[in-house]
Amino acid sequence: MNKKTYLFQSEIKQLLNLMINSLYSNKEIFLRELISNSCDALDKLKFYYLNFNNLSNNNEYCIKISIDDNILTVSDNGIGMTKEEVINNLGTIAKSGTKEFLKNFGDKLGNSESNIIGQFGVGFYSSFMVSDKVLVHTRSVKCKENDSVLWESDGQGKYIISNKDKSFIGTDVILYIKNECKEYLNKDVIINIIKKYSNYVSFPIKYRILYKGSNNFIWKKINISDALWTKSKNNISDKEYIEFYKSLVSNLGSPLIWSHNKVEGKNEYTSLLYIPDTAPWNIWNRDEYKNGVKLYIRKVFIMEGISKIIPFYLRFVQGIIDSNYLSLNISREILQESNFINKLYLSITKIILKMLIKLSKNTVKYNIFWKNFGNIFKEGLAEDESNRYNISLLLRFSTTFYNNKNEYTSLEDYLNRMNVGQDKIYYIISDNYLSCINSPHLEIYKKKKIEVLLMYEKIDEWMMIYLNDFKGIKLVSINKNDSNDTKIVSLKKSNLYSLNKDCFSNLIKRIKFILGDLVKDVKLTDKLDNYPVVVTTSSGEMSTQMLKLLTSVGKKVPKIKYLLEINCNHILIKYINSIIDDNLFKKWIYYLYYQALLIEMNTLENPVEFINLSNNLISKFLIK
Ligand code: ADP
Ligand code: MG
Fold this sequence. Notes:
By secondary structure, the protein is an alpha+beta fold. It has 20 helices and 22 strands. The strands form four sheets. A nine-stranded mixed sheet has the order 1-6-5-4-7-3-2-8-9, with helices on one face. A five-stranded mixed sheet has the order 10-11-14-12-13, sandwiched between helices. A hairpin with a 5-residue loop joins strand 10 (255-263) and strand 11. It is elongated. Bound molecules: adenosine-5'-diphosphate and magnesium ion.
């Protein structure tokens, strides 16, 4: 038998060296690479029969994987290679991309810190990461049985070529697995790798298993081999879409809606994206959570959770993007920076927002979405300025109109319900639904039948920084004492003046004297009904919720000095105004001040003091 030894082209030597010597964490991709090569070979054979030959192939095109002792074999009945092709394809690097890769990263790869290779598809040679020796036994469709070729190398700079008969057209890649890579001789490990990377390649991948109770083998298909997203929409049933979703994500319920798009043209790609009805448990972990979009290149899984592929506020989306445009051996670094990814980002964002607009027409489903992901989606107002309007169309709020925590309104519906002459959208921010709906700030609005949006999520105060108006109508917080324009609060200036002057100016003075620096100012108000006092800030100042937000993330923020507003029609205020004893008066003022603080902040720095004060004042009445 004529054996001949050849030397690898110098670039290959370099590549092999890097591959074998680098501490490379993602060795498993060798299998993805070999399977991809087999798929290419099968595609080529199909094409060959179609175009160059009238012969048809009766065999089923497939890839077979088997394990014997320390040998892992990947076989295909694809086009195979002639001797010249073997020398050209496996002994030299023709692709400029790989050469470029070596030029750019070669130096860095030698040392152990580098993981760059892990993000690359480096083709056939990656098999040397896990093998001591690799054999390629191949017979080209153009060759006879006895023209078949055996290629053999230990990856050390040389390879040997000889003749060895092969009865079928196609290629067997035979890997002598290294001692330290024994896991790749485990059936389950291999099957998992195949499912991870090659589940949707166009050809069946079969694994050899022993037939029960005999020494015979059967071949069992282990991949789905049918990439749903490549089919035409009209030929896919809802059931198939849902099943595919479930195969893609585990434990994430069912999809609320999906969108399947093919984008033609230079940057051609297909996307199949879903909105889940359940949130992943770690979605609030901003540092660790990655979006659920998987990137495929020609049906081969490349990576998932690429941050630049979709905006962070849409990170709940699950699905796939498959591109024919990118090449398999693109690195994460290159990918992240590529123009293609930038374009993808914009068009995928558009698709998702459109899908949400469609979902919003179904109130029941949209409510599920909103409960699960509303607070994440709100981040978009800050993150995605160019889509701010579309995002604001999709926002939902509790409202005094429904008086029900679980019924939401859109801003558009609010506008449609606005009173004649009303020129602002009013909202209130507090800690929770109940403290919103019972807030003294709301009294005047309730009385005047003006709808107020109720905001009680942590993110709301911050979100509203980015939402000043909707369709030209300003949004104003009624927590602020300067939001109450004259249309809402009807007390006439002259009235206030005379009240103030006549009987309460002295009261105000006394209160100011007692509270001193604790408050910014003390004023009369007529927006209250059932409450004697309320504290407020004005729009330029730090609000209570913002202070809480900042404090919760560890920021040191000075205490707020509130404006104390007094309802002079309230029986308590009238009573207090008549108290002459300074000591008793002081107690009542502190009592009212703490009460107003409690309502505003939902908490007090010193609740015991407040309770003691209250008990003290109540007991005085009892003793009387
Ligand atoms: P790439 O697949 O990107 O071209 P590879 O290093 O993976 O680079 O493979 C080099 C070449 O070897 C392929 O282009 C192909 O021509 C040939 N080849 C590899 N595996 C097979 C196979 N199973 N059948 C036929 N040809 C193959
Ligand atoms: Mg390849």
